[in-house]
Amino acid sequence: MIVGYKYIGMRAIVLARRDFRENDQVITVYTTERGKLDLVARGIKKIIAKNSAHLEPFSFVDIDITIGKEADYVTKVHPVDFFVPIRSDLNKSLMSQYLLSLVSKLLNVGEEDKRIFDLLISWFRFVNSTEFSGVILLDAFVMQFFALLGFQPALEACVVCDRSYKSMMKADIKGKHKPGFYFSGGGLVCEDCKLQKRSIGEQIIDCGLREVSDMQMLLQADWRTVVEFAMEDSTYQKLHKLVYEFVVYHSEKEIGDWEFRF
């Protein structure tokens, strides 16, 4: 990029901020045009700093950026949405902080994907507007986020032999066979393929077709449908275990289990 070049009114959501030098901070944002960026905000720790309040994590802002030799700089901030209802709800606030930490950890600087930006904004806008604060909203975000990263599980048929979901469902209902989730294979496996792969040391966990169906819902449904989806706690725990182990397998970074944090 050309030193001194300016971006005016770039849409961004603040992921994190950390101290840098005596009065400055590095603000990590995700933008529509340039993806994740680390930007220096000069003098932001001073009491009179006018931009400080607008650069809190999960603030939705328009920012002006100036390209420097060694760093890019925030020069102006215009607030779009501060998501006040989220900040006044402890559970929502904790979920939001975890979500931003996960996104920041897994994305590289400069990799732009407008779909990820849109996913972030849609999640925050919905959580901001609903009274519901269940962790299943975080499960749904994580699954849809990982799908955008290229890790969408194959759930319509066995990933080894192509046996259909419907065929496996019939066997599962009769109690004869229990399918599995094959991590390195990227999705669902039938009973026969599960046993075969396990015999050679592949990592596969047992899962009922209810969990598979619920996982599909997390991937495809909008946030309101996720909230309205009836599910007993025992059923949710099985679903969450599947989601979490899927995410851990496909992540190169250490990811803590978010279900135990809220």
TrEMBL record:
**A biological process from GO:** DNA recombination
Q: Name one GO cellular component term.
A: bacterial nucleoid
Give the record's keywords alphabetically: DNA damage, DNA recombination, DNA repair
- Name the Pfam families for this protein: RecO_C (PF02565), RecO_N (PF11967)
Source taxon at top rank: Bacteria
The answer to whether keyword DNA repair applies is yes
Q: Where is the signal peptide?
A: none
Using the record's annotation, list all stretches that form the DNA replication/recombination mediator RecO N-terminal domain: 10-82
InterPro entries listed in its UniProt record: ARFGAP/RecO (IPR037278), DNA_rep/recomb_RecO_N (IPR022572), NA-bd_OB-fold (IPR012340), RecO (IPR003717), RecO_C (IPR042242)
Q: What job does this protein perform?
A: Involved in DNA repair and RecF pathway recombination.
Family assignment?
Belongs to the RecO family.
Under NCBIfam families, the record lists: reco
The entry's protein name is DNA repair protein RecO
